[in-house]
Amino acid sequence: MATAENAGGKEQSSGPVVPIKGDHVLFVTNSLITSDHPSKGGTWLLTQTKAYLERGWKVGILCVMQRSGSRLRKRLFHGPWLSRTVVHGAAPAYCDYGWRLLWDRKYTARLAFRVYPAASLRLFLAYIARHGRPDIIHVHCSKHAILAGRLFSEWASRPMFVTEHQFIHRHRFVNPRVGREIKAALRKARGVIAVSPMLRDELAQWAGLPSDKMAAIPNMVDEDFFTVAPFPQTDEFRFVAVGTLDANKNQAMLVRAMALTSKRYPFVRATIVGSGPKLQELRRLAGELGVEDRVTFTGPLERDEVRRCIWDSHVVVSTSHQETFAMPLTEGLACGRPVLATASGGPQSIVTAEIGRLVPVGCTEELARGMEDMIANHGRYRPERLREYAVAHFGTQAVMDKLSAHYELCCG
Rounded to whole angstroms, how far apart are CA atoms 6 and 313? Predict the structure, then answer.
C-alpha cells in the first residue's frame, strides 16, 4: 500500500477536483444483510441503497466482511471467497469473507498489508468487469473498508467519500500502523461525513481533517417501514429499549430506573429488545430489584417484530454511555413515539424538548425522573407531529438532499 503522507506531510485529495459526472455509486462496507444471514446487521445499508435507487442512481456494494477464525480457517489459504447476492433488488453485492485473522493478530498484521489489498482489488475487478466503473466510491465505516476504498479510488481514479458510523478514533489498534493508515485514507478522501456533529468534530481533530471536507449528515430512517401508529390502548405505560445487551448500551440503568419509577407508578412496564453478553446479568438484576414482572426481555427480533414492539410502547428509551447516533430513537420518532435518552453523543443531535428529553449519562435518578415526566405529561406528544419531525430531519429524501449537496460541494 502506498505511503500515507507525502514529503511535505500533507495529504492530497483522491483524484482531480472535478464535478461528478454520472450516477453510479459503489458502497464499500464492513457489514451486509446477506441471503445467508438475513437478520445480521446492515439494515442501515438497505435503507441507503433503497434511497439511492429511488433517486435514479446505479448502486453496487462491495463488502469486506469480517469472519471469525473458526469459520474462516478452511478458506483462508484459498483466496477470497466471492459471494454474489442482492440487496434490495437491483443492487449487486460482492462479499469477501476474509482476513480477520490477519488484522486481529499482532504478528500477522504486517502480512495483512500485503495480502488484503490484493484480495480486495480482485473483488473490485470482479465487480467492474460486470457492472462498469463507478463514478463515486462511498465507504461506510472505516477500519477494513476504508483501506479497500482508498485502493479502489486510486486504481480507478474515482473520488472517495467516507461516512463514519463508529468511534474509530477511540479504537485501540493492535498494530498502530492500522490507525495511521486509516488517518491517511481519511485525509485522501474527497469528503468525510460523520453521522452526528459530535462525531464529526472528534474525527476531524483525530485525523487532522479540514472543515471544508467535513459534514455531519445523519443516518436515514426508513419511513416507509417505520410508520406511525396510535398509542396503545392499555392501562399500562410502556417503555421500550432496542439494542445489543452490553456494557455500553447500559440497559441496567433502565432496570434500576424501573425499580424507582414503579414505586409511584405501579402500572409502568419496560420491554428490552436484543441479545448480548449482559442478558443473564440483567435478568438477575431485575429479580433482585423486584421488577422481573415489569421488565420483559424479548431476545433478538426480526425487523418487523422490533417495529411491533415500538408500536406497542409509549416511549423509546436509550441509556447508552456513548453513541455516535442512536437509530432506535429516529425509528421510534418515525413511528410516532417520543424519546428519552442519555446525552451520550449522538442523541444530542436528535432529541429536542418538543420530541422528548435528555438525561445525564449514568444517572439512574435522572432517568427515573424523566420516565415519571413522560408518564405524567404524555398527552403533550402527538404521534403525527413526532413523525413529521423524524421525516423532515432523518427521512430518506431529507438525507439524500444533504448527501447530494456534499458530493457537489466537494467535487464541484
Answer: 55
Burial 138-161 (b: 16+ CB within 10 A, else e): bbbbbbbbbbbbbbbbbebebbbb
pLDDT digits (tens, 9 = 90+) for 378-397: 999 999 999 999 999 999 99
| 225 Cα distance to chain centroid | 17
Does the pLDDT value for residue 141 go beyond 90? Answer: no
Whose CA is closest to 344, among 218, 206, 249, 215? Answer: 249
**Cell for 164?**
463514519
Instruction: Give the CA radius of gyration of the chain.
Output: 22
If DSSP states are collapsed to H, E and C, what string results for the chain?
Answer: CCCCCCCCCCCCCCCCCCCCCCCEEEEEECCCCCCCCCCCCCHHHHHHHHHHHHCCCEEEEEEECCCCHHHHCCCCCCCCCEEEEEECCCEEEEEECCCHHHHHCCCCHHHHHHHHHHHHHHHHHHHHHHHCCCCEEEEECCCHHHHHHHHHHHHHCCCEEEEECCCHHHCCCCCHHHHHHHHHHHHHCCEEEECCHHHHHHHHHHHCCCHHHEEECCCCECCCCCCCCCCCCCCCEEEEEECCCCCCCCHHHHHHHHHHHHHHCCCEEEEEEECCCCHHHHHHHHHHCCCCCCEEEEECCCHHHHHHHHHCCCEEEECCCCECCCHHHHHHHHCCCCEEEECCEHHHHCCCCCCEEEECCCCHHHHHHHHHHHHHCHHHCCHHHHHHHHHHHHEHHHHHHHHHHHHHHHHC
pTM: 0.87
Q: Order of strands, edge to edge, in the sheet holding 237-242?
A: 295-299, 268-273, 237-242, 315-318, 339-342, 356-359
Among candidates 22, 30, 312, which has minimal Cα distance to 159?
Answer: 22
Residue 70 corresponds to which amino acid?
S
pLDDT digits (tens, 9 = 90+) for 101-117: 455 555 566 666 666 66
Query: Residue 30: pLDDT band by 50, 70, 90 thresholds?
Result: confident
